[in-house]
Amino acid sequence: MEKRRDVFQAIADPTRREIINLIAHQSLNLNSIANHFDSSRPTISQHVKLLEECGLLTIERQGRERYCKAKLEGLNDVAKWVNKYKVFWNSKLDALENFLENKPKHENK
Question: Which of 77, 29, 80, 39 is nearest to 16 (CA)?
Fold first, then answer.
């Protein structure tokens, strides 16, 4: 299915993050996923649909059941975005550390 939504939208919701966590380890059918939540089955189906549209999971038919399988490579965009800011803040913190270490002692009082 073509990605129509943003992966950041998908991971913004704690229920969708938990669905990703559940299927990251094994494929599960929709009923098994829904059983992990207090939400209704239609609500969980909507979460699954959004995750599929974002490219974070695929749904495969096996007989009458539909199984959800994680596509974690879809999280690469998130990892790249986070890493960009991690590098930025690490460089800022390193600069602050260097400044504080090289500050003359009489300025510390």
Answer: 39
Residue indicated by tokens 């704690």: 14
CATH second-level architecture of 7-73?
Orthogonal Bundle (1.10)
Q: Look at the block and give the residue holding tokens 């490219």.
A: 55
pTM: predicted TM-score of the whole model, two decimal places = 0.73
Give the chain's largest Cα–Cα span: 77
Q: What is the pLDDT of residues 46-95, one digit of tens each?
A: 999 999 999 999 999 999 999 999 999 888 888 888 888 888 787 878 88
Q: What angle (nearest 5°) sits at the alpha carbon of residue 91, between those of residues 90 and 95?
A: 115
Q: How far apart are CA 38 and CA 58, in angstroms?
A: 23
**Residue 24 to residue 94: CA distance in whole angstroms:** 35
Dist CA 80 CA 42 (whole Å): 33
Structure-derived torsion over alpha carbons of residues 87, 88, 92, 94, reported in degrees to the nearest 10: 10
